[in-house]
Amino acid sequence: MEVIKATLSNLEQLVPLFDGYRVFYKHKSDLDAARNFLKERLIKQDSVIFLCLDASDKGLGFTQLYPSYSSVSMQRTYILNDLYVAPEARKKGVGEALMENAKKFAKQQGSKGLTLETDIDNPAQTLYKKLGWKKDTHVNHYTWEA
Predict the structure, then answer these.
(1) Could you write out the three-class secondary structure of 75-90?
(2) Is 93 exposed, middle or buried (0-12, 13-18, 19+ CB in 10 A)?
(3) Which domains are assigned to the chain?
(4) How are strands ordered across the β-sheet holding 2-5?
(5) Residue 52 — φ and ψ, nearest 5°?
(6) Are 112 and 124 in contact (CB under 8 A)?
(7) What PROSITE patterns is this protein classified in (predicted)?
């Protein structure tokens, strides 16, 4: 198992994982839209995607980080927006490897840290707690949708 920073050459390894991620969150499967979305992210370099591969270069999981900034601390921060492990690769350390790689990357970038949000019933919360993530209890998050 190896975690790499994805490039355009990894697009076809990422597409089924990204599509699976969206289906997990109750969206309709759409491989073409997934491919186009990821291709745009990779070309524009407006996100950082880490991909976990097995020995035969099959994609096992991915995480996608979006850069942001904290005005109060005057530092870059990253939003860990997506984390997905293929069903057949779960409980094998893939999610942990991806998250630890994301933490290492954030430190290397001089980032304040990482933030994520997840569904209240997402079973991955056990992993987050195990890896030292803290549940935010001192601020409220609000969303506005167009």
Answers:
(1) EEEEEEEEEEECHHHC
(2) middle
(3) 2-130 (3.40.630.30)
(4) 2-5, 48-53, 59-70, 75-85, 114-115
(5) -100, 125
(6) no
(7) GNAT
Place of tokens 């290397």: 108
Tokens representing 78? 């990253």
| pLDDT tens string 18-66 | 999 999 999 999 999 999 999 999 999 999 999 999 999 999 999 999 9
- Among 74, 133, 136, which residue's Cα sits nearest to residue 103? 133
Question: Can you tell me which residue has the tokens 């933030």?
Answer: 115
Q: Do 50 and 102 contact (CB within 8 A), yes or no? A: yes
**C-alpha to C-alpha distance for 48 and 41, rounded to whole angstroms:** 8
Find tokens 């997934």 and name the residue: 34
Taking the model in full, what pTM does it have?
0.91
C-alpha distance across the termini of the chain, in Å: 41
For residue 48, what are the β-bridge partners?
Answer: 65
